[in-house]
UniProtKB/TrEMBL annotation:
Domain of life: Eukaryota
Protein name listed in UniProt: Acyltransferase 3 domain-containing protein
A GO term for molecular function: acyltransferase activity, transferring groups other than amino-acyl groups
Organism whose genome encodes this protein: Coccomyxa viridis
Residue intervals passing through the bilayer: 43-64, 132-151, 199-220, 232-252, 291-310, 317-334, 354-380, 401-418, 430-449
Segments forming domain Acyltransferase: 39-448
Keyword Iron attributed: no
Keywords: Membrane, Transmembrane, Transmembrane helix
Length: 462
């Protein structure tokens, strides 16, 4: 449970103020820090929905590999397709930011107390393991024992579904099923193209972060037990700066546009994709930016000074939030895909690559997402915060982890019953048909995720 809906009062003291009335300013809000944390349920649920929609569109790009040139042309002609192809990336960034935010927000109170910090760290590890391992390992067992054998059978009814799901996530050339052991050890994100069950790279990144975050905070914990938030904020800033510099360096080796949807039989194109994704997407290092932004956001919302500044300047903060949302929308319409790299492409200049990879994708995009998360928690717009705190979002957020793990398998089942060739034409794509089928995938995933979550909750008495 993230928090309650009690009304909170925050008092900020300004030392040295000439006006006695300004020495102590108290303000109340209908949504306290704890109540504002309920908005994170809505953010998590919406991010998970966006991932399912984005993955549905992305997977369609692999359904007909011989028509990859038509797919690239369709992305140029239909902005809604391009936006959906790009949608999963900022949604995944949001989940990582929430991981950093919640980790810092749960550990900081215990670390700043007078008692020993180690019991709090042990409790944190225990809760994380109980939440992740049973669900994840049971899905891995299901993949190995049932789904991969089924996927290996010839799908006469919907061969494009088999082609899309196996190529994108369960490719034999990437180690399915031989390298599935790496998923059990949470090192699959360091394998070639993230190994088998490729979308589980994020589980490895999160587990690696959950193991390291408490150790970082123990190292930063001062002897006086005060000032940990400030130290963590500074450390997060250093991490963000270092990873941004790393992104700027690796960006110079990128070749654009990226042939992500094919040709799949070109060894050079596959090697290019392998190198690009390994250094910039799947591994922990490039993802530390998002996790650090999450920790920085937690430090910000826990600071009375920051809270007062944001809430007392709602018009300015609202304007910044609007700019952040506009930036995110603009990134969805950025087309960096093509059948082969072009030397004279406008995105292929060194300056454009550094700005795009390090400045926009690596810095501005997670900063914008973090700003929106903090504004939701602090209740800059009470209507938005209340909408995100809706009980229905919480129900979906509670099973979002299981939903993420099973949605590709659900997608394969739905696409077998409703073959993509029956409702999607690359030359004349229908947004309505796509959304209808994707909604079926999403709600089936939610239903099965609830069953999965309920079983483990009863077994573990959570």
């Amino acid at each position: 449970m993230l928090g309650s809906r009690n009304t909170g009062v925050v008092r900020c003291t300004f030392k040295g103020a000439s006006d006695p009335a300004k020495q102590q300013i108290a303000y109340s809000s209908s949504i306290s820090k704890e109540g504002g944390l309920q908005a994170l349920h809505g953010i998590r649920a919406l991010a998970c929905i966006a991932i399912v929609l984005g993955h549905c569109m992305f997977a369609l790009g692999y359904a007909w590999p011989q028509r990859h040139t038509e797919w690239y042309h369709a992305l140029e002609q239909h902005s809604w397709m391009l936006a959906l192809v790009n949608l999963a990336e900022p949604a995944m960034d949001t989940l990582l930011i929430l991981s950093g935010f919640l980790a810092a927000n749960s550990l900081l109170p215990a670390m700043q107390g007078k008692g020993a910090a180690l019991p709090a760290v042990r409790q944190y590890y225990s809760k994380r393991m109980q939440r992740m391992l049973p669900s994840y390992y049971s899905v891995l067992a299901l993949v190995y024992a049932a789904f991969l054998p089924i996927l290996g059978l010839q799908n006469v009814r919907a061969p494009e579904a088999q082609q899309a799901i196996s190529t994108l996530w369960f490719n034999e050339g990437d180690g399915c099923p031989d390298k599935l052991w790496a998923n059990f050890l949470f090192v699959n994100n360091n394998m070639r193209r993230a190994g088998c069950m490729k979308y589980a790279w994020s589980q490895a990144v999160q587990m690696q972060f959950y193991l390291l975050c408490p150790l970082l905070m123990l190292c930063l914990r001062p002897a006086a037990q005060k000032g940990l938030e400030r130290r963590l904020a500074k450390a997060s800033g250093v991490i963000i700066a270092a990873v941004t510099a790393y992104r700027a360096v690796i960006a110079l080796d990128f070749q654009l546009p990226v042939p992500v949807f094919g040709p799949l039989d070109d060894p050079e194109a596959l090697d290019l994709m392998t190198r690009t994704l390994k250094v910039s997407y799947y591994s922990l290092l490039p993802r530390l930016t998002h996790l650090a932004f999450g920790m920085l956001g937690a430090c910000a919302v826990r600071s009375p000074g920051t809270t007062y500044f944001v809430r007392s300047r709602k018009r300015m903060t609202g304007g910044l939030s609007t700019l952040a949302a506009a930036l995110l929308c603009a990134t969805l319409l950025s087309n960096r895909y093509g059948p082969e790299p072009v030397e004279g492409h406008p995105l292929n200049s060194p300056a454009a690559k550094v700005i795009g990879v390090a400045g926009v994708t690596g810095l501005l995009q997670p900063a914008a997402l973090t700003l929106l998360v903090c504004c939701a928690v602090l209740g800059v717009s009470r209507r938005v915060t209340r909408a995100l705190a809706w009980t229905g979002w919480r129900r979906m957020a509670d099973v979002s982890y299981e939903m993420y793990l099973i949605h590709p398998m659900v997608m394969y089942a739905v696409w077998t019953v409703l073959p993509p060739s029956a409702w999607f034409d690359v030359q004349k794509p229908s947004a309505l048909a796509f959304l209808a089928v994707s909604a079926i995938v999403m709600w089936c995933s939610v239903g099965l995720a609830k069953v999965h979550h309920r079983i483990w909750s009863r077994l573990l008495q959570r």
